[in-house]
């Protein structure tokens, strides 16, 4: 489990491509590697990946074909920066909202407004997911727990504060980029339950 509070952006230093999977080598600072062991879970751009090896200043992750097909990890290049969060530990402060690291879909950036007063990103996503992306609700975007701004039938807005831009890779966002989306599980459960009950009662 994760909180959506990104701890660092870390560079992809190598990508070893094999049939059915890619092995990512991510450079991590000593503080982020402290206590990290093989088999541990780490969120990479919001995707829960298992540590397969630790060597010197880098950590290795295997990404299966299924994960590559549904996330933006397939588009990584050497030099890309990843949002990294270690898994939640007992007694940790939860500053965001609970994320599982299981990506539901991707959203494409359709607008970026960067001025002296604000940094806004508009994202386009398949309409079916907008049932769970609600104004002032929470959504996981590349592993960041963020509050949803204005919504339409297939878009939603993010208003990013300087601290978020400093700690994450969202300051590099540009039109056409794809971002990993994890919807809030509680919102999904409530919406699906209400829709099922209404359908059973013949209410549309």
How would you characterize the overall build of this protein?
It catalyses: 2 6,7-dimethyl-8-(1-D-ribityl)lumazine + H(+) = 5-amino-6-(D-ribitylamino)uracil + riboflavin. Helices cover 16% and strands 41% of the residues. It is of the alpha+beta class. It has two domains: 8-86, Beta Barrel (Elongation Factor Tu (Ef-tu), domain 3); 105-196, Elongation Factor Tu (Ef-tu), domain 3, CATH 2.40.30.20. A six-stranded antiparallel beta barrel has the order 1-2-5-4-3-6. A six-stranded antiparallel beta barrel has the order 7-8-11-10-9-12. Strand 7 (105-114) and strand 8 form a beta hairpin. The radius of gyration is 18 Å and the shape is globular.
Q: Which percent range describes the beta-strand content?
A: 35-45%
Largest sheet: 6 strands, antiparallel, barrel
- The count of β-strands is 12
Looking at the structure, what is the overall shape? globular
Radius of gyration: 18 Å
| CATH-defined topology of the largest domain | Elongation Factor Tu (Ef-tu), domain 3
Question: What would CATH call the class of the largest domain?
Answer: Mainly Beta
N to C succession of SSEs: EEHEEEHEEEEEEHEH
Low-confidence stretches are none
Structural class: alpha+beta
The strands making up the biggest β-sheet line up spatially as 1-2-5-4-3-6
Architecture per CATH nomenclature, i.e. the level-2 architecture of the largest domain: Beta Barrel
Summed up, the helix count is: 4
Span between termini: 35 Å
* Percent in helix: 10-25%
Q: Mean of residue pLDDT?
A: 93
> How many separate domains?
2
GO molecular function, one term: riboflavin synthase activity
Pfam families: Lum_binding
Function: Catalyzes the dismutation of two molecules of 6,7-dimethyl-8-ribityllumazine, resulting in the formation of riboflavin and 5-amino-6-(D-ribitylamino)uracil.
Protein name: Riboflavin synthase
């Amino acid at each position: 489990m994760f909180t959506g509070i990104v701890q660092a952006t870390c560079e992809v230093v190598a990508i070893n491509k094999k049939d059915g999977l890619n092995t990512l080598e991510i450079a991590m600072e000593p503080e982020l590697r402290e206590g990290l062991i093989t088999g541990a879970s780490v969120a990479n751009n919001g995707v829960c990946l298992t540590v397969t090896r630790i060597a010197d200043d880098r950590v290795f992750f295997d990404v299966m074909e299924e994960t590559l097909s549904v996330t933006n990890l397939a588009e990584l290049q050497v030099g890309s920066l990843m949002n990294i969060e270690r898994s939640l530990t007992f007694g940790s402060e939860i500053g965001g909202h609970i994320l599982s690291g299981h990506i539901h879909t991707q959203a494409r950036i359709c607008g970026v407004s960067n001025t002296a007063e604000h940094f806004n990103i508009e994202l386009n996503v398949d309409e079916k997911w907008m049932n769970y992306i609600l104004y002032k609700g929470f959504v996981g975007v590349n592993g960041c727990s963020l509050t949803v701004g204005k919504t339409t039938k297939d878009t939603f807005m993010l208003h990013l504060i300087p601290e978020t831009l400093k700690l994450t890779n969202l300051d590099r966002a540009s039109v056409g980029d794809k971002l990993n989306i994890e919807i809030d599980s509680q919102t999904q459960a409530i919406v699906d339950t209400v829709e099922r009950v209404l359908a059973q009662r013949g209410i549309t």
